[in-house]
Amino acid sequence: MNQTVLFSANGYVETEIAGVDEAGRGCLAGPVVAGACVLPAEYDLPGLNDSKQLKAKDREFLYDGIRAQAIAWSIGVSWPREIEAVNILEATFLAMSRAVRTLKTSPRFLRIDGDKTIPGYALRQEIPQEAVIKGDGTVPAISAASILAKTFRDRLMVKLAKRYPGYAISQHMGYGTKVHMEAIRQLGPSPIHRMTFRGVKPEKPAQQQASLF
């Protein structure tokens, strides 16, 4: 299926616009990963959609197609120690800005999935931006960025699962599933866990109320 888009948001041509999205923001382990993608006016990416709505095999197929057909694509990563140091929102902005800054072409406009744009101090350059709520399912360039981020991160987490066995990371990709939470309780957190996240950081013992009797 060929798709042609001549013009897009705010008067910019589609080939001047980078879509940006992240994966792994809500996980207890592993990095937060951002994707940035500039699509050509014509592309053949059947089923392009929000990565969360796709099966893994479909994401893998589109991942290769996006990288082959995109004008430019890139990945940005923020690891757990950085997440702990600056908080997950700031780390997400850093990952997004790294993805944008390492694109092989400079976009003239950014469309960011969600309700927030990338702060200028993180982006380090002046590029007009637009936040698009649920953009990963409605804006093709954001959908492509979503697939890039999710697939890259999943592949990375499968590799990390071999380095840190016992947590079933390749099954849940670092999200707070029942199996994952139980593994943390039994084994303690690993070096790739986010120590400031609830469910990972040690809970303070409840203070007992003093009795008068």
TrEMBL record:
<feature type="binding site">
    <location>
        <position position="113"/>
    </location>
    <ligand>
        <name>a divalent metal cation</name>
    </ligand>
</feature>
<dbReference type="InterPro" id="IPR012337">
    <property type="entry name" value="RNaseH-like_sf"/>
</dbReference>
<dbReference type="InterPro" id="IPR001352">
    <property type="entry name" value="RNase_HII/HIII"/>
</dbReference>
<dbReference type="GO" id="GO:0005737">
    <property type="term" value="C:cytoplasm"/>
</dbReference>
<keyword id="KW-0255">Endonuclease</keyword>
<dbReference type="GO" id="GO:0030145">
    <property type="term" value="F:manganese ion binding"/>
</dbReference>
<dbReference type="InterPro" id="IPR036397">
    <property type="entry name" value="RNaseH_sf"/>
</dbReference>
<keyword id="KW-0464">Manganese</keyword>
<dbReference type="GO" id="GO:0003723">
    <property type="term" value="F:RNA binding"/>
</dbReference>
<dbReference type="GO" id="GO:0006298">
    <property type="term" value="P:mismatch repair"/>
</dbReference>
<feature type="binding site">
    <location>
        <position position="22"/>
    </location>
    <ligand>
        <name>a divalent metal cation</name>
    </ligand>
</feature>
<comment type="similarity">
    <text>Belongs to the RNase HII family.</text>
</comment>
<keyword id="KW-0479">Metal-binding</keyword>
<protein>
    <recommendedName>
        <fullName>Ribonuclease HII</fullName>
        <ecNumber>3.1.26.4</ecNumber>
    </recommendedName>
</protein>
<comment type="function">
    <text>Endonuclease that specifically degrades the RNA of RNA-DNA hybrids.</text>
</comment>
<dbReference type="InterPro" id="IPR024567">
    <property type="entry name" value="RNase_HII/HIII_dom"/>
</dbReference>
<keyword id="KW-0963">Cytoplasm</keyword>
<dbReference type="InterPro" id="IPR022898">
    <property type="entry name" value="RNase_HII"/>
</dbReference>
<dbReference type="Pfam" id="PF01351">
    <property type="entry name" value="RNase_HII"/>
</dbReference>
<dbReference type="GO" id="GO:0004523">
    <property type="term" value="F:RNA-DNA hybrid ribonuclease activity"/>
</dbReference>
<keyword id="KW-0378">Hydrolase</keyword>
<feature type="binding site">
    <location>
        <position position="21"/>
    </location>
    <ligand>
        <name>a divalent metal cation</name>
    </ligand>
</feature>
<dbReference type="GO" id="GO:0032299">
    <property type="term" value="C:ribonuclease H2 complex"/>
</dbReference>
<keyword id="KW-0540">Nuclease</keyword>
<feature type="domain" description="RNase H type-2">
    <location>
        <begin position="15"/>
        <end position="212"/>
    </location>
</feature>
<dbReference type="GO" id="GO:0043137">
    <property type="term" value="P:DNA replication, removal of RNA primer"/>
</dbReference>
